[in-house]
Every structure is written in C-alpha cells, then in structure tokens.
Amino acid sequence: MEFMLNLQRGMDEQKPSLFELLSEQQLSGLIPLSLRYLLAVATHRRPRYLLRVLNSFDEIYALLMLAVERHYLRTYGGGFTENFYGLKRERVLRIKGGEAPRASKGAPTLMRETLRLKETDIWNNLAIMVALPYFKRKLDESYDIHVPQASILGPQYSRNTLPPNATIRERLIYYYKWFLRNIYPSINAAYYFSLLAFHLAYLFDNTKYFSPFLWLVGTRIRRMGEADYRAIALAEQTPPNPTSRLGSRPGQANSIWHPTTFATVVYPRLLSSLRLLLPTSIFALKFLEWWHASDFARQLSRKATEDLDLPPPIISGMPTRKPLRPTSNDSNNKSFRSQSRTSNLPTNTVSLSSPPSQQPTSSPSSFSPAHSPSVKTQKPTPPISSTSQLPILTVPPPNPQTSSLCPICLGSIQTPTSAQTGYVFCYTCIFKWVEGVHERQEAFMAQGGGEERWGEDDDDEFESPDEEGEKAQGREGKWENGKGRCAVTGRRVLGGTEGLRRILV
Question: pLDDT tens, 387-396?
Fold first, then answer.
C-alpha cells in the first residue's frame, strides 16, 4: 500500500510507516508494565521500604517520565522510545500543503531549526505523552474497580446511593462514580474510534498526523535525517571546563556534586545513558525468555544437583501432637511409654539426629481416633489478632467434597473471586465479609450460636469470670468479626475490597 502511494505521489523518505509508529507505541506501553512487575517482585522481599512506592507507582513513573521525555524532546527532538526507532517530532508549516521540499533539500539545517520544537511545543507534547496516559490509566483502573461492584451488588448497595446530608467529598465521589458508569464508556469508545480513524487516514496518506492529539498540538512525527544526527553529535560533545570562580577553593568548580556541574554535565549524561539501557534491557529480557523456555537450563540445573546429598527438611509452624495418655484398658504400658516419647515431636518434623530408619513413624492404630477411643481429639482454635489479642471469626476451610462450594454461604460459587490467601468465594459473600456486614458475621457477633465451629466452650476460653453473665449482650469486645480479613485464614486482605480479584473458571 505504501509502495503504491509513493509511486503515485512521490517518495517521502522522512515519513515513517504506520507499523514503525505502532511498534514504538507498543514499546512505550511495555515499559511501565515491566517496571511495575519488577517493583512488585522486589516489594515481596522488602515490603517495609517498597510498599508505599508500589502503591504510588503511577505518580512516580509520571514524574520520572516527565523529566526523561522533556530532556529527550529538547536534546534529540523526539521522545525516549521514538529516539530508539530513529524518529523525531517537528512542527508543521502553516503553508498550503505544509511542505517545502525544495527548501528541505537545499538547506536542511535551516529547515531543521525552523521546524524544531519550541518551549511551548515541548510542553504541549509532554501533555499528550505523559499527562494523557496517566489520566487514562487512572480512569481505567477506577472503572474496573467500581463498575463491576455496582453491576454485581446492585443499586441497593450503600456505596451507590448518595446519603442524606452528604459532605462535599462524598458528593464528589458519588458524581465521579456516576461519571464512570454512565459517561466514561462513551468517551473511551470515542477515544479509540478517533485513533482508528487517524491511523487509517495516515495509512492511506490522507493526513500528516498519526493521532488526533498530534493534530491538536500541530506536531507530526518524522524520521531523523543527516542534519539531525550532526546536531545531536555536536550537542553531545563535552563542554569546556568552566573557569574557576574568584575566591573558590581549588577543584570546587570541577566536582560532580557542584550544583552547576551536576545540572550541566552529570544530569544530561545520566538521562542520555538511558539510550544504551533500553536495548540492553530488551536483549536481557529476550535472553531470559529463551533461558526459561529452553531445555538447556533444566539439564544444567539437573546436572548441578545430581551429587548433592541434602538432609531431610525440618518443617516448623505446624501444631504439635499431644502425647498419648494411658488408660486402664492398655495392655502394654511399656510400648505406650515408648510411643509417647516419640510422639512429643511434631508429626511434620523430621529429626536430623537419627537416621531415617530409626525415626518414629505413626500408624493409624496408634493415632487415629477411630482406633483409639481413649484419645481425645484436639479441638481447633481460632486465630488470634496480633493487635487486639482477640480471637478472629473464621469459617471452616473447604474439603475435597465441598471444594466447589463457597466457604461462607455454603452454596454454589457465583462470580468466583479470589482473596490474596488463595481461597475462592462468591464475590458478594467475600465483599460483604471484608466490609464486615455479612449475615453470618452479624449473627455470630449477636450471640447467634456456634455455627462457625466456635461454640460456647470456645467463648469460655477467651472470657473472664466477670464476663460470663454478659453473654446475652453479644460477642462485641470479645471477638473480632473478621472485617478486613480472609474468611478462612483470618489474615489481613491488603487493600480491603480492592485487593479482591475475580477469576475465570
């Protein structure tokens, strides 16, 4: 298509193809995703220092890209990823057709300086390169969070109705959600339709602008020419050392930490070095992709661990098994004492002091309640809050027979949603549970009984003798209702209801 247009209208060597521009946009969109993934992996190891950075990633990335893109627009005439593809941005001449082919061939340096972006053009391009994608990401995230909640929970949920005597902040949030539900989908569709229309017009050479936003700021994207490379090489030359000021100490003006030296030499070179970091990162990414996809890495790791004799592991953190108590029906007390000595060790712990052949093993006849009626089974204990030191309300975990049921409502899972602990619930059930307004929570806290496997006996363990006469008042102040926690494990759900993720089954 482009070849036929060039035959009919003449070849424009400086005009990039549509596929070059789409590749540049795709690379520009992959950079924030890659950086967010790397930061998320590092946050798992250092959450104390990096969790706030991860939560404010969009803002920090926008500020960094503002500095980087401004430097590249002023120095190279194009964006960070555009410079990687050998592209630049220039103003469009306000003449008929917007082209001056004779002047471009006769005086390319003069035409470059004439079409070079001015300070106002640089800030206009920064608005569509940094500010526009930032607000687009924020609106998309808010739409993905609030709109599914309104469609699943229904309009009767309290968050979707404006309360009486609402404050200014509550009104702004209400109208913002109303905008996301009713107006933003149309704006988003118009955004993508306008991009598609300009892409098709640019492909058939009916416009000089790749997107409608470039048309608004009067800027087009072109390939870099010989005059551009000469100007960039001249700008990258090392400036002469500044003369020492009168009264300054020897070597003070040449220090890299001097404000003048840092602003004029170190800072520009630091940003320009990103040109080498980008292709290096792409090569490293492709190498890691090949490494994990090929069989060479598996064979190498298998050969490295062939001769390693690893000791048996010790697993800690599991409940220990209580020693067996003899009864009058025991026929062999000596064998019972030997079993009780070995049963003091946790059942999931392997001793390293004795060989595996001498380590105790459990049999169904000695540990199973069905075969030993005199042994009292250990009751499950609720998790304890580390802040309030109160037991936390939880529900029994699913077993293989009930794995397809919601652990909260004990019915078929509707709109499967996963908490950060890995358990899957109905979206409405886990949403209300994390909010602390589920019916089972309210019934339990109102002394509704022990349907959550924590009965009256468990209340006695966590109540003082003075509180036994106050059971009719409910369990407030004696238990935590599980608000903000996983319904099965009792662990905190980071981000509250926003930390829930719907899954596809």
Answer: 888 899 899 8
What is the residue whose two structure tokens read 């702004």? 172
Nearest Cα residue to 15 out of 228, 220, 219, 229: 220
- Which residue matches tokens 């104390």? 48
Half-sphere exposure (CA, 13 Å, Cβ side) for 300?
Answer: 6
As a whole number of angstroms, the distance between CA 459 and CA 468 comes to 9
Q: What is the pTM of this model?
A: 0.55
Decide: 213 and 128 in contact? Cβ < 8 Å.
Answer: yes
Task: Tokens for 471, please give them.
Answer: 């059971």
Q: Which residue has the tokens 């960070």?
A: 80
Q: Are 73 and 117 in contact (CB under 8 A)?
A: yes
* Pairing between β-strand 416-418 and β-strand 424-426 as defined by DSSP bridges: antiparallel
485 DSSP 8-state letter: B
Residue 319, C-beta contacts closer than 8 angstroms, at least 6 positions apart: 346, 378
Residues lower than pLDDT 70 in the chain: 1-11, 95-106, 148-160, 236-267, 296-298, 301-379, 448-473, 505
| Tokens encoding 184 | 């933003």
Tokens encoding 7: 């035959």
Q: SS3 of 224, please? A: coil
Nearest by Cα to 467 from 449, 482, 447: 447
Residue 287 CA: distances (Å) to CA of 28, 196, 281, 292, 462: 20, 34, 10, 9, 57
**% helix / strand / coil in the chain, to the nearest 5?**
55, 5, 40
